[in-house]
# Entry
Amino acid sequence: MNIIKHLNTIAAQFKPRFWNAGTSKTQGQILFNYRKFWFSSITVRSLVSLVPIAILFMFTYVLENKAIRNENHLHTIRLTSNTRRTLTYFFEERLDALKFIVQEEKFESLNNQKSLLYILRNLQRGFGGIIDLGLINDSGLQTNYAGPFDLKNKDYSNQRWFVDCVQSGSYLSDVFLGYRNMPHMIIALKRPTPDGSFYILRATLDIKKFIQILSSLELSERSDAFLCNREGLLQTPSKYYGELLNRVNLPIPEYSNHTQVMEAVDRSGNPILIGYAYIDNSPYILMLVKRSEVIMMGWYTLRKEINWVFGISVIVTLIVVLGISTFMVNKIYDADQTRLKAMERLEGSSRLISIGRLAAGVAHEINNPLAVIGENAGLIEDIFNLKKEYSGDQQVKELIAAVLESVERCGGITKQLLEFARHFEPKIQPLHIDKIISGVLSFLGKEASYRNITIHTDIPDDFPVISSDQGSLQQIFLNLVNNAFQAMDKGGRLDILATKHMDGHVRISISDNGCGISEEDRQKIFEPFFTTRGMRGGTGLGLSITYGLVRKLKGEISVQSTIGKGTTFTVTLPIKHGGDIKDETLTG
Amino acid sequence: MKILVVDDEKKIATVLAERLRLRGFDVIPVFDGTSALMRLQEERFDGVVLDLRLPDMDGIQVLRQTREKLSDVRIVVLSGHATQQEFKTCRELGAIACFHKPAKISELAQALTDFRKKE
# Structure
């Protein structure tokens, strides 16, 4: 629960100022839905910013993926192609060597045991990888043999290689076990003799030599390189795709005279990349197999980085969008609030001006009939007082006196109304606010002690001398202090604080810690006849007169109040009184 | 003692005249500035009770013209809506006293009486 409370406190700190606009009853007026505006602003800005970022990243993603894939293909093709060249060269070199021997050596020499052994030794020294040599006559019988096995007089007439060699003139075999029961391959060359017959020179090659070539390739982890024949039987051992002379566990690619690359899946379902090449003049296919996940490792790393950059870009963009939107809506909200307040103030003051005009009009109109009533009642009173025949009628006299008293009271009210509305006769002169306030306080000092109110004044020594009207100021402060006293029935504290402002104004605030004013009353407080002390003798004109006086002195008056805590009236006055004092409330 | 009451409101002028008569004054009411000035030219008055708002001219104007021609006539101003400034001007022009309407007849009579005593 505490954590939630804590989070709420943090959230409250970041909550934009406009967030609760319109939801609180006291704020009332709302120009438009700021939250909706905020959401729309965020949505539009986010879309405008994020869509291009997303497209850019998507392009980067696709292009980078393609580039890496292409590079892998190229690399595989290059490696396969180079290996093919090496192997082709290996076979051709040995075939050419045999061709040379067949061309250069006479049949007698080849058929001689010693001589053949000598040739074998030379070949082994010169090229390596040759196990033995054999000479076979046209009926398939091996008439001479040099090598580690006892194969002289072996009959090869039924062997396929013999038949093929007789037909095509030369032969390069698959790897097979043969009589010696070990994997090997042979190269055979047919040489026709002048008598129309022929003989065949055959060499056995050790497959270790090209296993060595393949294993010398620098392959990455989980990659494999091997040879298979066109039926798919493995001609060299494979690390992952089958045993020697067994079928390879991969699809056999179609023939192509160029090195190719193809994408496939292995038996376990892993995507693989196969580089392959058919080796010229041989039954072999070179296959180079790479696991996609291994070769694409670079891509995965890059993809991760791209994702990170994308994620961070999105977050930064969103934060900026959020910040800008909040800032903007806050500014609009503040401007609206300022405008609303100005409008309220204007509305309030124009209302007071209208009321003032009305009051003055009423006072003017009522005054004459009132005077008529007064004079007539006075005449009746005179008659009753002066003529002896009526002088004994005490009851009528009292009634007349009551009428006259009421007329006098009404006269007082109309006079006050006119005061509120009328031109005063201000005299602008340099004034010391502290002297005016101390004058007002000396006047009210007794009442303060009687009411148990302590008064604190704080007026700086360097407080400026202001140009204003003494009488008006005295009345303003008298009314405000008096008003504050009324709010503190059971005693309290009155603070009078004067401050100077840079804009050429002074501000005097009068704060009490009395009962406070409700929001509803606060709005009407400067209106004539508005009083909360109706039953206790308030006329409701004091503050409206004060308001009129302050406005006439080109000042402002405002009120802040909290029920039960107190009220502060703040009077702002210009230091220099520019121009004539004009009646701002109404014309008399 | 002869008094001229000048007030645009006939009811006020006549009743005021009647009340002053009850107090021993010889009172003539008039209801506009021109009549007042004419009367003052024709007859001799000891005092004038003058309203400042008159239908044809300003009461202050009447006061000024009266004062120019008749220096010994004592004038009491009685006005419904005069400002302090107007009362001040009236006093400067020689009005003996200024009253807001409705004024107490005793005070009005007192002003005229005091003046008579002074004389």
Q: What stands out?
A: The mean pLDDT of chain B is 86.
